[in-house]
């Protein structure tokens, strides 16, 4: 395993995302929630993963509970990250929710506590006050944000009166916005970008096409899985496969290797099985050449998925006709 060291923290470049744990959005079922998840966590730790990411909203607390149980005997090996859903995030709300998450996780501290989404209505300063209180009382070690623009990230740092370690954002060969300013900011300022959906929710594995689309709500409700977009992704997936073949590996592993080839970036892929987790961890050891990285970036540049209001209208239409 390789690590990113920044802002006094050390995170494995491949972490484990756990939205899937106990969540109806992914629909992996009871056997997954009650058995496979624990095996995934144990295997991840065995293979040197330290970063585990969850959130109070995943499975309405189920993910945090599952993670808490799975790491109980190995807490010291984990850099544990969770998130507050900022519905009406006064300082007291953030503080209370941080303590509730720690309770569900059965830990005395959370390594990274993140504001899940920006709330444009409630002042950021209130949320950072809550974060400061949690940090001062030792419940939280590092403060993070998620889905924040660079301006908001910096505003959060202003309100906190110090560094906000990380910004967790969608970042993959199918979602390149963080390249513009978030990744350069992290690299220049000893911060971290935590890449979520680094496989574009599995699209970049090449397992799906317009005739074989996933049916769970996490993906049906995402415009990236519109048949037109899956079809448009075909050349990018072909490039991934071609480079994967040269390394005797898979498209998914190449997609992850591209993400973590960027300094100060770590990825937190989710996994529906232990085998996927093992493959994802192995991507940390995959060295792509500069030419291959350039080829992937060019294939990604050429991928223009339909987005915006038109794409969302199609998502709604598909749901209505289901
Ligand atoms: N902060 C936020 O707002 C936010 C938003 C989304 C996610 N997240 C976090 O980021 C994590 C990861 O994102 P994500 O789950 O949305 O997307 P992802 O990691 O890009 O995709 C995960 C899915 O890809 C497939 N997959 C995983 N490894 C694979 C492999 N080696 N080969 C083939 N297929 C593979 C699996 O689905 P199938 O096997 O069913 O195809 C798996 O459930 C989440 O668990 C969560 O912790 C955060």
Which descriptors would you attach to this protein?
322 residues, alpha/beta, TIM Barrel, 44% helix, binds NADP nicotinamide-adenine-dinucleotide phosphate
Structure, explained:
The protein is of the alpha/beta class and 322 residues long. It has a single domain, classed as TIM Barrel, CATH 3.20.20. 44% of the residues lie in helices and 14% in strands. An eight-stranded parallel beta sheet has the order 3-4-5-6-7-8-9-10. The protein has a two-stranded antiparallel ribbon with strand order 1-2. α5 links the parallel β7 (140-146) and β8 (166-170). It is globular, with a radius of gyration of 19 Å.
| Strand fraction | 5-15%
How many individual helices?
13
CATH topology: TIM Barrel
Q: What is the residue-averaged pLDDT?
A: 96
So what's the CATH class? Answer: Alpha Beta
The run of helices and strands is: EEEHEHEHEHEHEHEHHHHEHHH
> How many strand segments?
10
Oligomer: single chain
Which range best describes the helical content: under 10%, 10-25%, 25-40%, 40-55%, 55-70% or over 70%?
Answer: 40-55%
Distance between the termini: 43 Å
Tell me the CATH architecture: Alpha-Beta Barrel
Parts with pLDDT < 50 across at least 5 consecutive residues: none
The tally of structural domains comes to 1
The secondary-structure class comes to alpha/beta
Compute the CA-based radius of gyration.
Answer: 19 Å
Largest sheet: 8 strands, parallel
User: Judging from the principal axes of the Cα atoms, what is the shape?
Assistant: globular
Q: What's the arrangement of strands in the largest beta sheet?
A: 3-4-5-6-7-8-9-10
The fourth-level CATH homologous superfamily is NADP-dependent oxidoreductase domain
């Amino acid at each position: 395993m390789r690590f990113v060291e920044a802002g006094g923290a050390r995170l494995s470049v491949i972490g484990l995302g756990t939205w899937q744990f106990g969540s109806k959005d992914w629909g992996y079922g009871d056997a997954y929630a009650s058995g496979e998840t624990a095996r995934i966590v144990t295997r991840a730790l065995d293979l040197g993963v330290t970063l585990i990411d969850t959130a109070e909203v995943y499975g309405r607390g189920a993910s945090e509970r599952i993670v808490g149980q799975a790491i109980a005997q190995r807490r010291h090996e984990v850099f544990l990250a969770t998130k507050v859903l900022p519905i009406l995030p006064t300082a007291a709300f953030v503080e209370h929710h941080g303590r509730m998450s720690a309770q569900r996780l059965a830990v005395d501290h959370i390594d990274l506590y993140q504001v899940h989404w920006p709330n444009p209505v409630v002042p950021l300063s209130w949320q950072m006050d809550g974060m400061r209180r949690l940090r001062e009382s030792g419940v939280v070690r590092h403060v993070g944000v998620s889905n924040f623009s660079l301006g908001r990230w910096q505003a959060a740092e202003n309100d906190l009166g110090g560094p906000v370690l990380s910004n967790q954002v969608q970042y993959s060969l199918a979602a390149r916005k963080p390249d513009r300013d978030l990744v350069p900011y992290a690299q220049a300022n000893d911060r971290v970008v935590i890449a979520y959906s680094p496989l574009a929710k599995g699209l970049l594995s090449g397992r799906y096409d317009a005739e074989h689309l996933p049916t769970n709500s996490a993906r049906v409700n995402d415009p990236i899985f519109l048949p037109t977009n899956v079809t448009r992704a075909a050349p990018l997936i072909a490039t991934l496969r071609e480079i994967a073949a040269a390394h005797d590996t898979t498209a998914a592993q190449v997609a992850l290797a591209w993400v973590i080839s960027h300094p100060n970036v770590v990825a937190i892929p989710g996994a529906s099985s232990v085998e996927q987790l093992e493959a994802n961890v192995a991507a940390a050891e995959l060295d792509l050449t500069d030419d291959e990285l350039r080829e992937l970036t060019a294939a990604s540049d050429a991928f223009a998925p339909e987005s915006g209001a038109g794409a969302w209208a199609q998502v709604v239409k598909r749901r209505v006709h289901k």
